[in-house]
């Protein structure tokens, strides 16, 4: 297989809930989020790993790890993704997919074929700020993925990275109201932007963190915070 995999995190206890896992990092992305701290990965400029090395790694970790996380970048851009996931499952691994949701047709294929055990979906911004944050105007494609997951039995989480120079409490309230409207009942993670040596696009200075206490509580889902 010819895969745009640039790196492997050999062990993690944090990225696949209740499972030991590794992470396969896919180069290339169909978004251009201004706060992205790994431009080389997103722009597909990192050197790719040979398939033989990936295959050897996965075989050596059989029965030592519970699962494999497919992340990036955006892994759903790879035409070989469904084939790779089937291969990984045949080795006995569970599969977690990290995605921005802009390829609902791939998500639908994987869900229909029962190839996923867990999904993490990035809710980048509400509709009116989606293009400003992501550089893309396909909010409806993301929303289709979110609706699909909300009507499926596969467990999933939703994540939002917040730079208060780009979004504020009002925007997060809009996102939370949308999740409530769709009947989301999982874990919602709010992640504070962390400064990095380089970002994909120039950013305004973040003068304050999001005021978590100004957000409404939810009876449907649980809100978690990271780096606040």
Give an account of the 3D structure:
- The chain contains 7 helices and 8 strands, in the order ββααβαβαβααβαββ.
- The protein has 228 residues and is an alpha/beta fold.
- The protein has a single domain, classed as TIM Barrel.
- Helix 4 runs parallel beside helix 6 (139-150).
- It is globular, with a radius of gyration of 17 Å.
- The N and C termini lie far apart (41 Å).
- The relative contact order is 0.14.
Features:
228 residues, alpha/beta, TIM Barrel, 8 strands, 29% helix
Sheet with the most strands? 8 strands, mixed
Q: What string, H for helix and E for strand, traces the elements in order?
A: EEHHEHEHEHHEHEE
Second rung of CATH, namely the architecture? Alpha-Beta Barrel
The Rg value, from CA coordinates, equals: 17 Å
Strand content: 15-25%
Largest beta sheet: what is the strand line-up?
1-2-3-4-5-6-7-8
What is the CATH top level name?
Answer: Alpha Beta
Mean pLDDT over the residues: 96
Question: Distance between the terminal alpha carbons, to the nearest Å?
Answer: 41 Å
Rough outline: globular
* Total domain modules: 1
* Count of alpha and pi helical runs: 7
Layout: helices, strands, pairs:
Layout: E1 5-12, E2 21-26, H1 39-42, H2 51-60, E3 67-72, H3 81-90, E4 94-99, H4 104-112, E5 118-122, H5 127-134, H6 139-150, E6 156-162, H7 169-182, E7 187-192, E8 222-226
Parallel strand pairs: 2-3, 3-4, 4-5, 5-6, 6-7, 7-8
Antiparallel strand pairs: 1-2
């Amino acid at each position: 297989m010819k895969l745009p995999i640039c790196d492997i995190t050999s062990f993690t206890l944090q990225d696949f809930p209740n499972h030991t896992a590794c992470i396969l990092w896919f180069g290339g992305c169909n978004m251009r989020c201004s706060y992205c701290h790994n431009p080389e990965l997103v722009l597909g400029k990192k050197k790719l790993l040979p398939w033989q090395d990936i295959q050897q790694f996965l075989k050596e970790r059989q029965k030592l790890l519970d699962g494999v996380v497919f992340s990036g970048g955006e892994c759903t851009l790879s035409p070989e993704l469904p084939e790779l996931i089937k291969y990984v499952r045949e080795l006995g691994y569970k599969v977690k997919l990290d995605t921005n949701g802009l390829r609902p047709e791939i998500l639908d294929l994987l869900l229909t074929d029962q190839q996923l055990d867990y999904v993490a979906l990035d809710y980048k911004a509400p509709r009116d700020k989606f293009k400003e944050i992501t550089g893309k105007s396909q909010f409806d494609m993301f929303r289709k993925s979110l609706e699909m997951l909300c009507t499926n039995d596969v467990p999933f989480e939703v994540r939002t990275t917040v730079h208060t120079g780009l979004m504020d409490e009002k925007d997060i309230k809009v996102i939370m109201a949308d999740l409530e409207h769709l009947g989301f009942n999982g874990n919602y993670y709010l992640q504070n932007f962390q400064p990095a040596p380089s970002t994909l696009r120039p950013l305004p200075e973040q003068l304050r963190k999001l005021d978590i206490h100004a957000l409404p509580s939810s009876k449907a889902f649980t809100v978690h915070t990271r780096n606040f």
